[in-house]
Amino acid sequence: MSPRRPERVVVAGSAAQNPSYGGHLWVFLQYLLGFRRLGHDVLLVDRLRPEMLNDPPAGGALKRSHELRRLTSVLRRYHLSDSFIVLDHNGEPIAGITRREAIARTRTACALINISGFLDDAEILAAARRRVFLDLDPGFPQMWRELGLADVLAGHDVFATVAGRIGAGDCVIPTCGLRWIVTRPPVVLEQWPAMKAPARIGFATVGAWRGPTGPVEYGGETYGLRVHEFRALAELPTRTAASFEAALDIDHADRADAELLRDGGWGLVKPAPATADPASYRRFIRAHAAELMVAKQMYVRTRGGWFSDRSACFMASGRPVLATDTGLDGLYPTGRGLLTFTSPSGAIDGARAILADYTRHARAARSIAERYFDSDAVLTELLAAVQYR
Length: 389
Hints:
- By secondary structure, the chain is α/β, with parallel strands linked by helices.
- The protein has helices spanning 22-37, 66-77, 99-107, 122-127, 140-147, 226-230, 255-263, 271-274, 278-286, 297-302, 309-316, 344-356, 358-372, 375-388; strands at 8-12, 41-47, 84-87, 93-96, 111-115, 131-135, 158-161, 180-182, 202-208, 216-218, 221-223, 243-249, 267-269, 290-293, 321-324, 338-341.
- The chain starts with 7 loop residues before the first strand and ends with a helix.
- The model has no long low-confidence stretch (mean pLDDT 93).
C-alpha cells in the first residue's frame, strides 16, 4: 500500500533501553516498519545514558554496551541500519547516522512522533515542524502534570493517546486542557500472519510485575500497577481446564507473589530468553493459543479504554484475548475473539467460553485485528490527524 504523497516521519523513543525484551522493541518496529510500508521515509531517534544500562561495560563505554549492540542488530535485520541514531548523555551519536544528518532529516519530516515524551534533545525537537507527544501509558503523564510531579507533555504541538475514551464523562484521565487525538496500537499484519493453533489450548501473558513507574495518588484515589490487578487472578488456573503461563519480570523482592502464582497453578518463566528479541517474542505468542491480558490498575480504574499492543499482536496471530476491562465496550467488538472481565469470576467465565468454542474465537480475533489494528489504516489516520492539527 502506497501513500498519495510519501513523507518523512521521525519516531523518537527508548528502544535501546530494553533491547532484551522483544515486545518492547516491537512497539517501535510497528511504527517504523508500518510507516515504511506506506512508502514513508523513517528515522528512529533514541538516547542511551549510563544509568540506563543493566550491565555497564568496563569503563562505562556506551558504544560497547549490550543494549546498543542488541538494538543495532535488530535494526539491521529489518533493513533500518541507515534509519536511526542513538545519542549519548551529551547528545553525541554513538550509533547510526550523524547528528547533523539527523537534524537535517528532522527538518524535512512532516512530524516527529515522541513516544511518551522520551526525547528531550532541544535542538532536534526544535528542528521538527510538528512535535507529537504519543501517549502509550495513559493516566501517568497527565496526572504527573496535574500534580506538578513532571511535565513530559511540555514542548509538544500535538497530543495523541491510545486512551480511546479520554474526555468521556466517566474517564478520569485529566485532559490537561489539551485536545487529544485518539489512536490505536498498530500491527504490521504481514509480520504477524494468522497461525494454526497449537495442540494444547492454554493462555499466556507477558510483562513486568511492577514496571518502572510507581502508583499515583490523584484526586484522593490511588492508581496502581499490574501487580494490584494480577493478585486477584492467582487462582485462575485451578478454576478452569486450561493451562496458564506467565513470562513475568518479577523481582526477587516479590518472591511471595511469585509463590502465590505458583500455588495457584501458574507456570512462570523468565521474560528472557522466552521473549528476548522480536523473533522469540513472536514465537512465544504463536506457541500459545490465547492471551490473558492483565492491565495496570491505572488503566482499569481510569476507564480510559487503553488496549495493549501485545494483545493486538496476539489477535493478529489468530489468538483470542481475555482482557481486563479498561472501558473497551464501544471501542472494539467484545464477546467473540476479544472477551473482557471485571472480576475473577468474569475471567473464569471468559476462559471457559474461549475453551468451549476456540476455533470461532480465533477467527474472530484475527478479524478484529484486521479491522482495528492494521498499521496501514492506523498510521494513515494518525498521520492525517497530526498534519490536520
